[in-house]
Structures are given as structure tokens and as C-alpha cells.
Design goal:
The protein contains four helices and three strands. With about 130 residues, it is α+β, with helices and mostly antiparallel strands.
Length: about 130
């Protein structure tokens, strides 16, 4: 195996610096995009909770109503599904309560409903509740 000459070492250093610089640029642009959508997320959460009300609905049913009721008036499941996941896993405002066959795809999909105050309290404190085995 031959020794690494200074030209090869300088090339490697230059390429590593370029990669680090590109990573910093993409990290900065990702952060700016995230900061831009933060206020929109809260609005979307409120819209989804209002749409569900006391009903049991799939993501597609929720998005169908949302696309007609609130601007922008376009159907985009990618605007709804991540927010539903956050409302279930992070905020415990919704709960998955079953499955239903999707009208478009024919596949089984989750059905969502609002959590009760008792369910929300339990989910918020699940890590603090001791389990008896």
C-alpha cells in the first residue's frame, strides 16, 4: 500500500470541508422551513379537532371536509396525516378507535375520535402511573 501524498490529503480535506458546508446549508434551510410551518400547524390542529367533533372519522374523511371548508381548497392527505399522528401521539387530543375500509384504496385505515378527559389524563401521565404485575 502506497503512502498518501500531500495532494491526495489536500483533496480529501477540501471535499470534507465542502460536505460540512453543504450540511450546514441544508440544516439551516430545513430549520427555516420548520419555523415557517409552526404557526400553520396550530391552525391545522384546531381545524382537525373541530372537523372531528364527536364523530369517528378516517383521515380521508377528515381531509375531504377540510379541503372544502378551509383554504387552501385543495385535497392533500400529506397535510392531514402527519397532524393526526401528532394529535394522537404527542398531544393526546385524538385516539385511534378502530379500522374502516378506505373508499378510495379499499385498504383498512385507522378511524379517529376525540379523547375523553379521562383518556387524555391517563395518556398524558402514562409514564408516571405504576403498573402492577
Amino acid at each position: 500500500m502506497g503512502a498518501i501524498n500531500s495532494r491526495t490529503t489536500n483533496e480529501i480535506i477540501r471535499k470534507v470541508r465542502e460536505l460540512v458546508k453543504m450540511n450546514l446549508i441544508t440544516q439551516e434551510t430545513r430549520q427555516l422551513s420548520f419555523e415557517d410551518i409552526k404557526p400553520k400547524r396550530l391552525t391545522r390542529y384546531m381545524q382537525l379537532i373541530e372537523i372531528i367533533g364527536n364523530k369517528k372519522m378516517t383521515a380521508r374523511e377528515i381531509e375531504t371536509i377540510r379541503s372544502f371548508k378551509y383554504p387552501p381548497k385543495r385535497f392533500d392527505m400529506n397535510c392531514t396525516r402527519p397532524r393526526l399522528t401528532e394529535l394522537v401521539n404527542e398531544y393526546h387530543e385524538l385516539i385511534e378507535c378502530g379500522t374502516k375500509k378506505d373508499t378510495e384504496t379499499g385498504k383498512s385505515v385507522a378511524v379517529y375520535r376525540r379523547t375523553t378527559e379521562q383518556e387524555k389524563m391517563e395518556l398524558d401521565n402514562i409514564n408516571h402511573i405504576p403498573y402492577l404485575y
